Amino acid sequence: MTPERFRKLKSVLQLRQLDLTVLMEHVHKPHNLSAIMRTCDAVGVQNIHAVTKDEHVRATKSAASGSGKWLDIQSHSDINTAMSSLKNQGMQILAAHPSDHCIDFREMDYTKPSVILLGTELYGVSDEALEQADQHIIIPMLGTVDSLNVSVAAALILFEAQRQRLIAGLYDKQQLSDEAFHQILFKWSHPKLARFYESKALPFPELDEDGQVIEAEHHIKARLNN
Known about the structure:
It is elongated, with a radius of gyration of 19 Å. The longest helix has 19 residues, at 150-168. By secondary structure, it is of the alpha/beta class. Helices cover 42% and strands 16% of the residues. The chain folds into two domains: 17-168, Alpha/beta knot, CATH 3.40.1280.10; 178-224, no CATH class. The two termini are 23 Å apart. The strands form two sheets. Strands 3-2-1-6-4-7-5 form a seven-stranded parallel sheet, with helices on both faces. The protein has a two-stranded antiparallel sheet with strand order 8-9. α3 (61-64) links the parallel β2 (47-51) and β3 (72-76).
């Protein structure tokens, strides 16, 4: 870990938006999952959600370009549990899906805590999820096709959200608590060491300004006894 790399990670983490996320409802193609994850990282999303039958979200390394290790991914067993949890956090849920009362995605206010709900590649968002969404949004189509690839649609919507949030100054103030910031930064900077401390149920040690570990005495003893 070079000092330059450490400073880059800190600057990225300071921009993370905790109240902007995506909820993927059975988006199962690894290439699409990876592309969505890559976009989330690019616009400053830290936490993403997926309703999936698998315990882990499966992505391709080439499309994700390593972005998966910078994101916290929460899997949900069903859409009702996922949407209930996010609504209880005060998030508006915006379903990317055509309907009789959908609106242009650019008309939404993404400076509010927002969830972009994305459906399956073939059928889109389920009827069950659409009924619970706060608003249905679409990307206007002027050609012969009536929809975009799910990862492309996600990118357009998320970058509109980023545009609005930049204008509103939401990237100017760190949203993570100091404790959460340190936890994530340590994992990013020293992933192997972080796993060791977690296995010993020890708090992460402090880092100096160059990202080097400042170990307390009990941390050193734990490592020597390992």
